[in-house]
Specification:
alpha+beta, Beta-Lactamase, Helix Hairpins, Heat Shock Protein 90, five-stranded antiparallel beta sheet, 11 helices, 15 strands, two-component regulatory system, Sig_transdc_His_kin-like_C, calcium ion binding, EC 2.7.13.3, phosphorelay sensor kinase activity
Protein backbone atom coordinates (compact mmCIF):
# COMPACT_ATOMS: atom_id res chain seq x y z
CA UNK A 1 0.00 0.00 0.00
CA UNK A 2 1.10 3.57 -0.65
CA UNK A 3 -0.08 4.63 2.80
CA UNK A 4 1.50 3.72 6.10
CA UNK A 5 -0.82 1.51 8.18
CA UNK A 6 -1.19 1.15 11.94
CA UNK A 7 -3.71 -1.06 13.75
CA UNK A 8 -4.42 0.08 17.29
CA UNK A 9 -6.93 -0.31 20.07
CA UNK A 10 -8.91 2.57 21.52
CA UNK A 11 -6.15 3.37 24.02
CA UNK A 12 -3.50 3.83 21.35
CA UNK A 13 -1.78 0.49 21.94
CA UNK A 14 -0.61 -0.73 18.55
CA UNK A 15 -1.26 -4.25 17.27
CA UNK A 16 0.40 -3.84 13.88
CA UNK A 17 2.75 -1.24 12.38
CA UNK A 18 3.67 -1.42 8.69
CA UNK A 19 7.33 -0.89 7.68
CA UNK A 20 6.45 2.49 6.15
CA UNK A 21 4.75 3.58 9.38
CA UNK A 22 7.83 2.59 11.38
CA UNK A 23 9.91 5.05 9.37
CA UNK A 24 7.54 7.89 10.25
CA UNK A 25 8.36 7.67 13.97
CA UNK A 26 4.74 7.97 15.10
CA UNK A 27 4.87 4.81 17.26
CA UNK A 28 7.13 4.51 20.31
CA UNK A 29 7.26 1.41 22.53
CA UNK A 30 4.04 0.05 21.06
CA UNK A 31 2.00 3.24 21.60
CA UNK A 32 0.95 6.10 19.35
CA UNK A 33 3.38 8.94 20.06
CA UNK A 34 1.71 11.79 18.14
CA UNK A 35 -0.70 13.81 20.29
CA UNK A 36 -2.65 14.87 17.19
CA UNK A 37 -3.16 11.28 16.08
CA UNK A 38 -4.20 10.26 19.60
CA UNK A 39 -6.69 13.15 19.66
CA UNK A 40 -8.18 11.95 16.35
CA UNK A 41 -8.37 8.41 17.72
CA UNK A 42 -10.21 9.57 20.85
CA UNK A 43 -12.84 11.33 18.72
CA UNK A 44 -13.35 8.18 16.62
CA UNK A 45 -13.68 6.07 19.77
CA UNK A 46 -16.42 8.41 21.09
CA UNK A 47 -18.66 8.64 18.03
CA UNK A 48 -17.37 6.00 15.60
CA UNK A 49 -17.04 8.48 12.74
CA UNK A 50 -14.06 8.40 10.40
CA UNK A 51 -11.68 11.32 10.88
CA UNK A 52 -9.44 12.95 8.23
CA UNK A 53 -6.84 15.54 9.06
CA UNK A 54 -3.58 16.93 7.78
CA UNK A 55 -0.91 17.08 10.46
CA UNK A 56 2.63 18.36 10.60
CA UNK A 57 5.38 16.63 12.52
CA UNK A 58 9.07 17.22 13.05
CA UNK A 59 11.18 14.20 12.23
CA UNK A 60 14.83 13.68 13.00
CA UNK A 61 17.10 13.62 9.95
CA UNK A 62 20.80 12.92 9.87
CA UNK A 63 22.86 15.60 8.14
CA UNK A 64 26.48 14.50 8.35
CA UNK A 65 27.17 14.14 12.05
CA UNK A 66 24.41 16.55 13.02
CA UNK A 67 20.88 15.40 13.84
CA UNK A 68 18.32 17.93 12.67
CA UNK A 69 14.54 18.00 12.80
CA UNK A 70 12.65 18.71 9.62
CA UNK A 71 8.88 19.18 9.13
CA UNK A 72 6.89 16.35 7.57
CA UNK A 73 3.32 16.79 6.34
CA UNK A 74 1.05 13.76 6.78
CA UNK A 75 -2.53 13.12 5.74
CA UNK A 76 -4.08 11.01 8.51
CA UNK A 77 -7.29 8.97 8.24
CA UNK A 78 -8.59 6.98 11.24
CA UNK A 79 -11.63 4.71 11.46
CA UNK A 80 -13.08 1.74 13.29
CA UNK A 81 -12.64 -1.43 11.29
CA UNK A 82 -13.74 -4.49 13.35
CA UNK A 83 -14.74 -5.96 16.66
CA UNK A 84 -12.24 -8.54 17.82
CA UNK A 85 -12.09 -10.72 20.91
CA UNK A 86 -9.86 -9.50 23.70
CA UNK A 87 -6.45 -11.05 23.24
CA UNK A 88 -6.02 -13.97 25.65
CA UNK A 89 -9.75 -14.52 26.21
CA UNK A 90 -10.46 -18.17 25.49
CA UNK A 91 -14.08 -18.55 26.62
CA UNK A 92 -17.28 -16.46 26.77
CA UNK A 93 -16.94 -15.88 30.52
CA UNK A 94 -13.53 -14.29 30.12
CA UNK A 95 -14.87 -12.13 27.27
CA UNK A 96 -17.90 -10.95 29.21
CA UNK A 97 -15.73 -10.08 32.18
CA UNK A 98 -13.53 -7.92 30.02
CA UNK A 99 -16.42 -6.20 28.30
CA UNK A 100 -17.05 -8.75 25.54
CA UNK A 101 -14.94 -7.28 22.77
CA UNK A 102 -12.02 -4.99 22.07
CA UNK A 103 -12.42 -2.45 19.27
CA UNK A 104 -9.74 -2.26 16.60
CA UNK A 105 -8.98 0.96 14.69
CA UNK A 106 -6.99 1.56 11.51
CA UNK A 107 -4.71 4.55 11.10
CA UNK A 108 -3.68 5.40 7.52
CA UNK A 109 -0.88 7.91 7.05
CA UNK A 110 0.29 9.33 3.74
CA UNK A 111 3.39 11.51 3.45
CA UNK A 112 2.37 14.57 1.40
CA UNK A 113 5.46 16.67 2.20
CA UNK A 114 6.59 16.72 -1.43
CA UNK A 115 3.16 17.87 -2.58
CA UNK A 116 3.07 20.66 0.01
CA UNK A 117 6.59 21.76 -0.87
CA UNK A 118 5.63 21.89 -4.54
CA UNK A 119 2.57 24.01 -3.73
CA UNK A 120 4.73 26.36 -1.66
CA UNK A 121 7.24 26.65 -4.50
CA UNK A 122 4.45 27.38 -6.97
CA UNK A 123 3.03 30.13 -4.75
CA UNK A 124 6.49 31.58 -4.25
CA UNK A 125 7.12 31.42 -7.99
CA UNK A 126 3.98 33.40 -8.87
CA UNK A 127 4.70 35.94 -6.13
CA UNK A 128 8.31 36.34 -7.14
CA UNK A 129 7.60 36.62 -10.88
CA UNK A 130 5.07 39.35 -10.17
CA UNK A 131 7.52 41.19 -7.93
CA UNK A 132 10.54 40.79 -10.21
CA UNK A 133 8.65 42.00 -13.30
CA UNK A 134 6.96 44.84 -11.46
CA UNK A 135 10.18 46.28 -10.03
CA UNK A 136 12.04 47.09 -13.28
CA UNK A 137 8.81 47.94 -15.12
CA UNK A 138 7.87 50.45 -12.42
CA UNK A 139 11.38 51.88 -12.39
CA UNK A 140 11.35 52.34 -16.17
CA UNK A 141 8.00 54.14 -16.00
CA UNK A 142 9.19 56.44 -13.23
CA UNK A 143 12.51 57.18 -14.94
CA UNK A 144 10.76 57.93 -18.24
CA UNK A 145 8.63 60.55 -16.47
CA UNK A 146 11.75 62.02 -14.88
CA UNK A 147 13.48 62.27 -18.26
CA UNK A 148 10.46 64.08 -19.65
CA UNK A 149 10.53 66.57 -16.77
CA UNK A 150 14.29 67.11 -17.20
CA UNK A 151 14.18 67.65 -20.96
CA UNK A 152 16.10 70.94 -20.64
CA UNK A 153 18.97 69.37 -18.67
CA UNK A 154 21.19 67.24 -20.98
CA UNK A 155 23.24 65.81 -18.11
CA UNK A 156 20.12 64.66 -16.25
CA UNK A 157 18.70 63.16 -19.45
CA UNK A 158 21.90 61.19 -20.03
CA UNK A 159 21.97 59.97 -16.43
CA UNK A 160 18.35 58.85 -16.30
CA UNK A 161 18.54 57.38 -19.80
CA UNK A 162 21.40 55.20 -18.55
CA UNK A 163 19.27 54.10 -15.62
CA UNK A 164 16.45 53.21 -18.01
CA UNK A 165 18.86 51.13 -20.12
CA UNK A 166 20.06 49.31 -17.01
CA UNK A 167 16.53 48.48 -15.82
CA UNK A 168 15.56 47.46 -19.35
CA UNK A 169 18.53 45.09 -19.53
CA UNK A 170 17.55 43.63 -16.16
CA UNK A 171 13.98 43.10 -17.37
CA UNK A 172 15.22 41.51 -20.60
CA UNK A 173 17.53 39.16 -18.70
CA UNK A 174 14.68 38.09 -16.42
CA UNK A 175 12.36 37.33 -19.34
CA UNK A 176 15.12 35.43 -21.17
CA UNK A 177 15.85 33.30 -18.13
CA UNK A 178 12.16 32.60 -17.60
CA UNK A 179 11.95 31.42 -21.20
CA UNK A 180 15.09 29.32 -20.76
CA UNK A 181 13.71 27.77 -17.57
CA UNK A 182 10.40 26.96 -19.23
CA UNK A 183 12.25 25.39 -22.15
CA UNK A 184 14.37 23.06 -20.05
CA UNK A 185 11.31 22.08 -17.98
CA UNK A 186 9.19 21.35 -21.06
CA UNK A 187 11.87 19.27 -22.76
CA UNK A 188 11.71 15.55 -22.06
CA UNK A 189 15.46 15.27 -22.37
CA UNK A 190 17.58 14.52 -25.41
CA UNK A 191 16.92 11.25 -27.22
CA UNK A 192 19.81 8.98 -28.11
CA UNK A 193 19.61 10.30 -31.68
CA UNK A 194 19.75 13.99 -30.66
CA UNK A 195 22.46 13.53 -28.06
CA UNK A 196 25.92 14.34 -29.38
CA UNK A 197 29.46 14.06 -28.03
CA UNK A 198 30.41 17.19 -26.09
CA UNK A 199 34.04 18.21 -25.59
CA UNK A 200 33.85 19.21 -21.93
CA UNK A 201 37.19 21.07 -21.85
CA UNK A 202 36.17 23.26 -24.79
CA UNK A 203 32.74 23.96 -23.26
CA UNK A 204 34.27 24.93 -19.91
CA UNK A 205 36.79 27.25 -21.58
CA UNK A 206 34.01 28.97 -23.52
CA UNK A 207 31.91 29.38 -20.36
CA UNK A 208 34.87 30.94 -18.55
CA UNK A 209 35.69 33.22 -21.47
CA UNK A 210 32.10 34.51 -21.58
CA UNK A 211 32.39 35.44 -17.90
CA UNK A 212 35.82 37.07 -18.16
CA UNK A 213 34.56 40.63 -18.58
CA UNK A 214 32.54 40.33 -15.35
CA UNK A 215 35.48 38.74 -13.56
CA UNK A 216 37.88 41.49 -14.65
CA UNK A 217 35.42 44.17 -13.54
CA UNK A 218 35.22 42.53 -10.09
CA UNK A 219 39.02 41.97 -9.95
CA UNK A 220 38.50 38.21 -9.71
CA UNK A 221 40.89 35.74 -11.32
CA UNK A 222 39.53 32.79 -13.29
CA UNK A 223 41.44 29.50 -13.14
CA UNK A 224 40.97 26.18 -14.88
CA UNK A 225 42.14 22.74 -13.83
CA UNK A 226 42.17 19.40 -15.66
CA UNK A 227 42.48 16.39 -13.42
CA UNK A 228 44.95 17.35 -10.70
CA UNK A 229 46.80 19.87 -12.88
CA UNK A 230 46.36 23.61 -13.28
CA UNK A 231 46.12 24.48 -16.97
CA UNK A 232 46.31 28.23 -16.66
CA UNK A 233 44.20 31.33 -16.48
CA UNK A 234 41.63 31.89 -19.19
CA UNK A 235 42.61 34.57 -21.69
CA UNK A 236 40.37 36.81 -23.77
CA UNK A 237 40.57 34.51 -26.78
CA UNK A 238 39.06 31.66 -24.82
CA UNK A 239 42.24 29.59 -24.54
CA UNK A 240 44.00 29.00 -21.24
CA UNK A 241 47.65 29.93 -20.85
CA UNK A 242 49.80 26.79 -21.07
CA UNK A 243 46.65 24.72 -21.61
CA UNK A 244 47.06 21.44 -23.51
CA UNK A 245 45.30 21.36 -26.86
CA UNK A 246 44.09 18.35 -28.87
CA UNK A 247 47.00 18.78 -31.24
CA UNK A 248 49.37 18.22 -28.30
CA UNK A 249 47.76 14.89 -27.58
CA UNK A 250 45.69 15.90 -24.56
CA UNK A 251 43.13 13.29 -23.53
CA UNK A 252 39.59 14.22 -24.54
CA UNK A 253 36.92 14.55 -21.88
CA UNK A 254 33.64 13.72 -23.57
CA UNK A 255 30.02 13.40 -22.44
CA UNK A 256 26.85 12.98 -24.46
CA UNK A 257 24.39 15.88 -24.49
CA UNK A 258 23.87 19.35 -25.88
CA UNK A 259 27.00 21.53 -25.87
CA UNK A 260 25.18 24.86 -25.61
CA UNK A 261 23.08 23.68 -22.67
CA UNK A 262 26.04 22.30 -20.74
CA UNK A 263 27.96 25.52 -21.40
CA UNK A 264 24.99 27.48 -20.01
CA UNK A 265 25.01 25.35 -16.86
CA UNK A 266 28.72 25.96 -16.23
CA UNK A 267 28.42 29.64 -17.16
CA UNK A 268 25.61 30.15 -14.62
CA UNK A 269 27.70 28.61 -11.85
CA UNK A 270 30.75 30.73 -12.71
CA UNK A 271 28.59 33.86 -12.91
CA UNK A 272 27.16 33.17 -9.44
CA UNK A 273 30.64 32.53 -8.06
CA UNK A 274 31.83 35.90 -9.38
CA UNK A 275 28.80 37.75 -7.96
CA UNK A 276 29.28 36.32 -4.46
CA UNK A 277 33.07 36.48 -4.22
CA UNK A 278 35.04 39.39 -2.75
CA UNK A 279 37.46 41.35 -4.92
CA UNK A 280 40.98 39.99 -5.23
CA UNK A 281 39.95 36.33 -4.93
CA UNK A 282 39.79 33.65 -7.61
CA UNK A 283 37.16 31.30 -9.07
CA UNK A 284 38.35 27.91 -10.24
CA UNK A 285 36.74 25.34 -12.51
CA UNK A 286 38.12 21.81 -12.49
CA UNK A 287 37.35 18.96 -14.88
CA UNK A 288 38.13 15.41 -13.86
CA UNK A 289 37.02 12.05 -15.22
CA UNK A 290 37.10 8.49 -14.00
CA UNK A 291 35.80 5.20 -15.38
CA UNK A 292 32.12 6.15 -15.08
CA UNK A 293 31.59 9.89 -15.00
CA UNK A 294 32.97 13.37 -15.56
CA UNK A 295 33.02 15.88 -12.71
CA UNK A 296 32.94 19.63 -13.27
CA UNK A 297 33.58 21.62 -10.10
CA UNK A 298 33.14 25.36 -9.71
CA UNK A 299 35.02 26.56 -6.63
CA UNK A 300 34.93 30.05 -5.14
CA UNK A 301 36.22 31.87 -2.07
CA UNK A 302 32.98 33.74 -1.55
CA UNK A 303 30.60 34.40 1.30
CA UNK A 304 29.33 30.81 1.44
CA UNK A 305 25.83 29.43 1.90
CA UNK A 306 24.25 28.63 5.30
CA UNK A 307 23.48 24.95 5.85
CA UNK A 308 19.74 25.60 6.24
CA UNK A 309 19.59 27.27 2.80
CA UNK A 310 21.53 24.68 0.81
CA UNK A 311 18.51 22.43 0.22
CA UNK A 312 16.57 25.32 -1.36
CA UNK A 313 19.11 27.13 -3.53
CA UNK A 314 18.02 25.28 -6.68
CA UNK A 315 14.43 26.49 -6.32
CA UNK A 316 13.24 29.15 -8.73
CA UNK A 317 13.78 32.69 -7.42
CA UNK A 318 15.15 31.48 -4.10
CA UNK A 319 17.87 33.80 -2.78
CA UNK A 320 19.94 33.35 0.35
CA UNK A 321 20.35 37.14 0.60
CA UNK A 322 17.68 38.92 -1.52
CA UNK A 323 19.15 42.38 -0.94
CA UNK A 324 22.63 41.34 -2.10
CA UNK A 325 21.22 39.40 -5.07
CA UNK A 326 19.33 42.43 -6.36
CA UNK A 327 22.39 44.60 -5.85
CA UNK A 328 24.43 42.23 -8.03
CA UNK A 329 21.68 41.92 -10.63
CA UNK A 330 20.80 38.29 -9.94
CA UNK A 331 17.44 36.88 -11.03
CA UNK A 332 17.35 33.82 -8.76
CA UNK A 333 16.84 31.56 -11.78
CA UNK A 334 20.38 30.56 -12.76
CA UNK A 335 20.76 27.62 -10.38
CA UNK A 336 17.29 26.30 -11.20
CA UNK A 337 18.11 26.36 -14.93
CA UNK A 338 21.45 24.68 -14.26
CA UNK A 339 19.83 21.88 -12.27
CA UNK A 340 17.32 21.12 -15.05
CA UNK A 341 20.06 21.12 -17.72
CA UNK A 342 22.22 18.73 -15.71
CA UNK A 343 19.30 16.39 -15.03
CA UNK A 344 18.38 16.39 -18.72
CA UNK A 345 21.91 15.23 -19.52
CA UNK A 346 21.48 12.36 -17.05
CA UNK A 347 23.68 13.93 -14.40
CA UNK A 348 23.47 15.33 -10.89
CA UNK A 349 24.50 18.57 -9.21
CA UNK A 350 25.46 19.04 -5.57
CA UNK A 351 26.90 21.77 -3.38
CA UNK A 352 29.34 22.00 -0.50
CA UNK A 353 29.51 25.32 1.27
CA UNK A 354 30.39 26.92 4.54
CA UNK A 355 29.76 30.57 5.45
CA UNK A 356 32.94 32.58 5.14
CA UNK A 357 34.84 29.76 3.41
CA UNK A 358 33.25 29.70 -0.04
CA UNK A 359 31.27 27.18 -2.05
CA UNK A 360 31.92 24.25 -4.39
CA UNK A 361 29.28 23.19 -6.92
CA UNK A 362 29.86 19.76 -8.47
CA UNK A 363 28.25 18.60 -11.71
CA UNK A 364 28.49 14.87 -12.44
CA UNK A 365 27.74 13.74 -15.98
CA UNK A 366 27.89 10.18 -17.38
CA UNK A 367 31.06 9.65 -19.37
CA UNK A 368 30.39 9.06 -23.09
CA UNK A 369 30.86 5.48 -24.23
CA UNK A 370 33.92 5.27 -26.46
CA UNK A 371 32.08 3.28 -29.14
CA UNK A 372 29.19 5.74 -29.26
CA UNK A 373 31.56 8.68 -29.35
CA UNK A 374 33.53 7.27 -32.25
CA UNK A 375 30.36 6.43 -34.16
CA UNK A 376 28.85 9.90 -33.67
CA UNK A 377 32.10 11.70 -34.55
CA UNK A 378 32.49 9.63 -37.70
Amino acid sequence: MRSAVILTDGLGRTRYVSPLAERLDVVVDGHLESSEIRDMLNQVVVDGKVRDREIEMNMEAESGRITEREPVHLRARIGRIADIAVLGASDPDDMSTSGGADQLYAVFLEDISEQRNFERMRRDFVTNVSHELKTPAGAISLLAETVSDAADDPDAVRYFSGRISKESARLTELVQKLIALQKVQDDDGLSAVDSKPVDVLRVVREALDENKVQADAANIELRMYVGDDTVGVITTDGVADDAPTPSEGAAKVVVNGDADSIKTAVKNLVENAIHYSPKGTHVGVSVKQDDDDVRIRVIDQGIGIPAEAQSRIFERFYRVDPARSRATGGTGLGLSITKHIVQEAGGTISVWSRPGEGSTFTIRLPKAERSNTSKNQS
